[in-house]
Amino acid sequence: MPLLLASSAIPPGGEIPSQYTCDGADISPPLTWSGLPDGTKSLVLVVEDPDAPSGVFRHWAAFDIPAGSHGLDAGYSANLPATGLHEARNDFGRAGYGGPCPPKGHGIHHYHFRLLAISRPTLDLKPTATVSDVLRTAEPYVIQRAELVGTYHR
């Protein structure tokens, strides 16, 4: 069974509701996953926008997500921590989720929610780690990946 990532708020390839963007409450959308492969010790979740004017913009990285978990509720943040989970600094310069916020009139942006099943229980990263640090550290341990793409424009 393949690793699957889904959201009750974002249909695959569909528009991200404004409450999950800078135009709304700017909270993370609800996410669920299933089909973790054998050997999964933890999960990494990353959200990136490859359509940003400056290149790939990294909106979120959550890591050290326990392998026994099945998703994150809407509005997850460090104020409502899941056991063991950590968040990296995004390209907005702060830890946690930063929702879609493309420049007005820049067209449709595609937001890639990526879930990585990894063979390591923790990435042992410092609290100052960035999304790029998380991806670089996790890469050698990736067993399987899943992706959900949502769109947003202003």
Write the layout of secondary structure elements.
Blueprint: E1 4-6, E2 31-34, E3 42-49, E4 57-66, E5 71-72, E6 86-87, E7 109-118, H1 131-138, E8 142-152
Antiparallel strand pairs: 1-2, 2-5, 3-4, 3-7, 4-6, 7-8
How would you portray this structure in words?
With 154 residues, the chain is mainly β. The protein has a single domain, classed as Phosphatidylethanolamine-binding Protein, CATH 3.90.280. The protein is 5% helix and 32% strand.
* Mean pLDDT metric: 94
**Helicity range of the residues?**
under 10%
**Cα Rg:** 14 Å
Which blocks of ≥5 consecutive residues have pLDDT under 50?
A: none
Q: Helical segment tally?
A: 1
CATH topology: Phosphatidylethanolamine-binding Protein
What is the N-to-C order of secondary-structure elements (H for helix, E for strand)? EEEEEEEHE
